[in-house]
Amino acid sequence: MKKTSAASLLFVLLISAGAFSQNIATTRNAAIDIEPEVPKISRVDNSDIRRKRAYPMQPPTIPHKIDSYQVDLNANKCMSCHSRRQTPDSQAPMVSVTHYMDRDGNFLADISARRYFCNQCHVVQHDIKPKLENQFVDIDELLRAGSQR
Ligand code: HEC
Ligand code: HEC
Fold it and tell me: Residue 44 and residue 86: Cα distance in Å, rounded?
């Protein structure tokens, strides 16, 4: 008996939650009982055009697709183009020298373990309209604005 009344209380709570949720701000853009059309998965920008960095130490974003580029214990597909050895064949920019340094600043013959998992720092960009406008101000613009004062 107790169990059923608890269950019906939960039911009432759920129903009223459903009623209230219509006023909650959401990016769902449809009532809770309507299944909106699923947006298409956006395409990865594969233009091969290297992008400007927001500041000198920024890991550059990836200007090509990375589908099925395996990076694990046994293989690092990225390094098959970006390593010092492979750049003459791939014409890819070599990973910078920091990628060959250990934490004490010694230079190694091969990629440092600290830089092995490329996607920790480098990401692709998607061909989409951003939900919010980017208000980032480049240091050059800041300096220019400052010198005009
Ligand atoms: C088949 C060769 C190849 C593979 C594999 C590859 N890349 Fe590249 N990558 C390139 C080339 C060539 C460029 C130069 C721009 C272009 O042509 O896309 C580039 C550009 C980049 C850049 C931009 C560098 C800059 O200065 O703007 C980054 C970052 C990058 N790749 C990261 C990666 C990562 C991370 C992976 C693995 C997930 C990877 N790449 C796998 C060939 C490759
Ligand atoms: C811990 C973060 C981190 C990881 C992991 C990492 N990178 Fe980078 N990468 C950076 C940063 C920061 C820069 C820019 C400053 C520099 O060169 O150190 C950079 C620069 C680059 C560049 C441009 C080099 C140049 O001289 O223009 C390429 C290409 C690149 N990384 C590829 C890779 C690839 C491929 C891997 C995986 C094998 C990788 N990175 C792993 C942080 C990282």
Answer: 25
Instruction: Give the domain 39-125 fold.
Output: Flavocytochrome C3; Chain A, domain 2 (1.10.1130)
Task: Please give the distance, rounded to the nearest whole angstrom, from the Cα atom of residue 61 to the centre of ligand 2.
Answer: 9
Q: Whose CA is nearest to atom 3 of ligand 2?
A: 121
pLDDT tens column, 7-48? 555 554 444 454 455 555 777 778 889 998 888 899 999 999
pLDDT digits (tens, 9 = 90+) for 49-101: 999 999 999 999 999 999 999 999 999 999 999 999 999 999 999 999 999 99
CB atoms within 10 A of CB 103: 8
Q: Which one of the ligands is nearest to 78 CA?
A: 1
CA nearest to 64, candidates 39, 47, 85, 51:
47
